[in-house]
Amino acid sequence: MANESLSKAKEAKNDEFYTQYHDIEKEISAYLEYNPDVFRGKTVLLPCDDPEWSNFTKYFAQNFETFGLKKLISTSYAPESKRYKYGYQPTLFETEAPHFDADKTKTHGKIFVLDHDVTGDGKINVEDLEWQYLEGDGDFRSKEICKLRDQADFIITNPPFSLFREFLAWIMEANKKFLIIGNMNAITYKETFPLIKDNEVWLGATGFVTDMVFGVPEGTIVKESDKLKAERLGYVGNYTRLGNSCWFTNIDHGRRHQFLPLMTMADNLKFSRHKEIRGISSYIHYENYDAIEVPYTDAIPNDYEGIMGVPVSFLDKYCPEQFVIIGQTQGDSGKELGLKPFPRELKKLNPSLRDGQLYYIDEEGFPQKPYARILIRKKQ
Ligand SMILES: C[S@@+](CC[C@H](N)C(=O)[O-])C[C@H]1O[C@@H](n2cnc3c(N)ncnc32)[C@H](O)[C@@H]1O
After folding, report:
1. Rounded to an integer, what distance in angstroms lies between the CA atom of residue 242 and that of residue 233?
2. Ligand 1 pocket mutation, candidates 77, 146, 167, 179, criterion most atoms within 8 A of CB
3. Same domain assignment for residues 48 and 195
4. pLDDT tens across 114-128, in order?
5. pLDDT, tens digit, 9 for 90 and up, residues 102-117
6. Which protein residues touch ligand 1 with a CB less than 6 Å away?
7. For residue 293, what are the domain limits?
8. Domain check: are 294 and 233 in the same one?
9. Do 124 and 169 lie in a common domain?
10. What atom in ligand 1 is closest to the CA of residue 46?
11. Which of 26, 37, 116, 117 has a CA-to-CA distance to 300 between 20 and 30 Å?
């Protein structure tokens, strides 16, 4: 396979992941638990969702009345515009419709709308979805989909991973409520982290330690280990598992308001389950920033008033009433925080040190850099 096709296949692999009904249900339940009327009278747009396949569409259509929705709009992307062309076959649902068009089905996106009882059975549900071809291919950046975005209250989907940055910016510029799936690496992107720091965006209710299983198009090459993990979770066939995906949102849920139960510094030093903490005389202090190194979220001392460097996974437990986020140390962010450059002689000792990163001196006198850290402080 030529290099170009290889990288296309890789990107496509990242873009063609289909979310499982159960994962959507589990996540949405947390918002409903916090506010049962969160979707009442609202318009929800699912902008990267072919309703014939998408569990997002099925889930929201099925719960249209329970949630009290005003309107559900779901749009799909034209098969010929997708990076990965996997032998698209229109479904019977489409081909049996009087307005089916064998050419348009390849080059145009589709729009599905649900807002009233079409079948006359007295209920509004998935049976009442009405569809049309879009004018264009359904690219979320097109004028046609931007117009739909502007009339929606909520944007919910699992967007193409390769366009995550653009997708989030597309939502934020329209100032919409949203819930989307992304790779957890996106947390530290320079486009995402400032929003998390300022509590404009946060992680969803499903922890990102949980493996999520996704459907993949027939014929997609899935790593054996991921296939096995998906099978162990009960998904056999065209499925893969991703351990590094999580939900990003600006819809409130109860989990983010739960205080993390933590011990005092003295108790951590005596009783922590982590050997790096238990029995040492004090937490390590960074050399180039006034903060202590806390290598595990459950080892954050609850009585420390200064700044602490904690793992990125802390965000999964972050409660804005308990902690304030000061910054992060990925990319250029360390320089922005004013981390002092390393003395030259230290660089000789550990050439992997880079200016703009945190470092500390270990017990052998060797300069070490911790993994990616988020700097936090107890809320006053
Ligand atoms: C990660 S998949 C998720 C599909 C569905 N939301 C789900 O969760 O099952 C992302 C979908 O977005 C489509 N897509 C890719 N680029 C797009 C674009 N520019 N505009 C709209 N959709 C796009 C992909 O073809 C793919 O079907």
Report:
1. 12
2. 77
3. yes
4. 999 999 999 999 999
5. 999 999 999 999 999 9
6. 15-19, 48-49, 54-56, 77, 82, 138-140, 157-160, 163
7. 259-378
8. no
9. yes
10. 6
11. 26
